[in-house]
Design a protein that fits this description.
41% of the residues lie in helices and 26% in strands. It is of the alpha+beta class. A hairpin with a 7-residue loop joins strand 9 and strand 10.
Length: 345
């Protein structure tokens, strides 16, 4: 008798165990027309930092503020950066004048001066030569000394050399600056302009702007703190798009596809469905994360699913646990964005 009771008890345990595992395999599917998943609301975050070093002058936003793309969030002290811009602008202006002077060539006044100096040297050389010739005649008549004639010859040669020098100077003035000097001046101008551009970029980087629409989550630094590219100042939560991160059991993988619409329910508003659509299904399997609130075993193999959600009133918050109901009696869509129901909100 005891043996029969034991065998009956063992049979009931086996049946119960099999029923439990059968229930486990069917969990996540309420019936043949819908799929029920569990997950949490997820969003992207941006840790925004200055692209430069300096002390923070002011921060224009507080935690919880909604900001638009391009809105200024914070600013560094800019006195030194502005001075660098002013100095670079002055350097560009000075080099522009240098280049303009070289490209314009010699002024008429400079040419006239060189021409006059050449004419004066020629006149001097002619007078010195005439003196030499006169002394040479006097030497033949014994009316001048040999020393006087030799001095006149030296003076004449010196005057001729001066003529050649002034003529060369006149030729240089007429030719104008060398092309190599003009090319160097142009290169120097480009260098000064690049330095000005860099100074303006550094000044612009002293202002921190929102890269996208979102909500300020944290003010990590405060006015007076030293900022750097390695130190975030503000954490921005990107509220568009917002999605639910859920995990799909492998047996149901073939029943859904990107673009299928879904209803999302929360504990805060249990009677209010939020419309959404499947935007992503992971191509690789993984073990269920421990923080996923689902009745399945923690070590069951699953695929991550991302269900994008309509959140016009901002009621879906980061980390909020939700239940996702996916009707299975709908055609599979290949383009999730094309099936987005949020345009009708």
């Amino acid at each position: 008798m005891n043996k029969k009771i034991f065998l009956l008890f063992l049979f009931l345990v086996i049946v119960a165990t099999g029923g439990y595992w059968l229930w486990e395999d069917q969990e996540g599917i309420s019936d043949e027309t819908r799929l029920e998943l569990y997950g949490n609301v997820d969003i992207r975050e941006v840790r925004i930092a200055f692209d430069g070093n300096g002390h923070i002058d002011n921060i224009h936003v507080q935690e919880g503020d909604k900001v638009k793309q391009g809105q200024i969030l914070a600013r560094l002290k800019t006195a030194r950066l502005q001075a660098s811009v002013d100095a670079a602008e002055a350097g560009v202006a000075a080099q522009q004048q240098v280049l303009a002077r070289l490209e314009s060539g010699s002024r008429p006044e400079e040419i006239g001066k060189a021409q006059a100096e050449a004419d004066a040297a020629k006149a001097t050389a002619k007078a010195v030569r005439d003196t030499y010739l006169r002394l040479q005649k006097l030497l033949d008549r014994k009316l001048a000394s040999l020393e006087e004639v030799e001095a006149a010859i030296s003076a004449s040669e010196t005057a001729q050399a001066q003529v050649r020098a002034t003529e060369a100077t006149l030729a240089l003035v007429l030719a104008g600056p060398r092309q190599e000097d003009i090319a160097k001046a142009r290169a120097d101008l480009r260098l000064r302009e690049a330095e000005l551009t860099l100074a303006k970029i550094r000044l612009a980087d002293a202002s921190l702007y929102a890269p996208a629409d979102g909500i300020i989550r944290d003010r990590i630094l405060e006015p007076g703190d030293m900022a750097s590219p390695q130190t975030p100042v503000i954490t921005l939560a990107l509220v568009d798009p917002i999605w639910v991160r859920a995990y799909l059991p492998e047996p149901t993988l073939g029943r859904i596809a990107p673009g299928m619409q879904a209803d999302i329910y929360t504990d805060s508003y249990p009677e209010k469905p939020y419309r959404g659509w499947i935007g992503y299904i992971s191509p690789s399997a993984e073990f269920t994360p421990k923080n996923v609130e689902t009745p399945e075993l923690r070590k069951r193999l699953v695929y991550q699913v991302r269900i994008y959600a309509c959140n016009p009133n901002g009621e879906l918050r980061l980390g909020m646990p939700v239940t996702v109901i996916i009707p299975l009696d709908q055609a599979h869509q290949n383009n999730a964005l094309a099936t987005s129901p949020c345009g009708n909100e």
